[in-house]
Every structure is written in structure tokens, then in C-alpha cells.
Amino acid sequence: MFSGTYGKTDYVKLSEFGFENGEYSTHEIMAKSIGDVTSIKVKASGTIPYQCKTIEVELDFKFWVFDCGEPLFCPKYCEREF
């Protein structure tokens, strides 16, 4: 979920089966305009911890970089906002 100066988007599933260790992936997401991105909420499922380094959002000529911080461990910390 992306939050911005004009609202927020719905959740977008990035992977049906998860990501490989060390994988770099790019996803094109179509969503309503929310203005400048102020935060991202990431949700994980399953039992394997998920750790990303950064999440980068690009729109036209603007971009935002969010540091991921600590890993997501389900079921205790399955959701985190950056």
C-alpha cells in the first residue's frame, strides 16, 4: 500500500510465490494518483522471514527511496510501514 499527500492505494500483490534470496525485481504498478509518496506499507505472508534492502518508487521524473530496516517475521511482524 502506498500513502501520499492525496490519499492511499489498495494493497498490490508483488509475488504469488515469494522472492529468491538476493533477488532484484522491478514491478510496474498502475494505481490512482496519490500525489507525492510519503510512506509504503509492506505485508508478508508465510513462515520464511522477508528482508529487503530498499524499496524505490518512481513516477514520471520523481523518485522516492525507502529503507526497509528490520526483516518481517510472520506471524509476529507480518506488516511494516516505511
Short description:
This protein is 0% helix and 33% strand.
Mean pLDDT: 84
Q: Can you give the helix content as a percent range?
A: under 10%
Instruction: Give the neighbour order of strands across the main sheet.
Output: 2-1-3-6
Distance from first to last alpha carbon: 10 Å
Strand content: 25-35%
Spans of at least 5 consecutive residues with low confidence: none
* Alpha-beta content class: mainly beta
Largest sheet: 4 strands, antiparallel
How many strand elements?
6
Total tally of structural domains? 1
With helices defined by DSSP (H or I, 4 residues minimum), what is the helix count?
0
Q: Could you give the order of the helices and strands?
A: EEEEEE
Give the overall silhouette.
globular
Radius of gyration: 13 Å
Describe the structure.
- By secondary structure, the protein is an all-beta fold.
- The protein has one domain.
- Helices cover 0% and strands 33% of the residues.
- The mean pLDDT is 84.
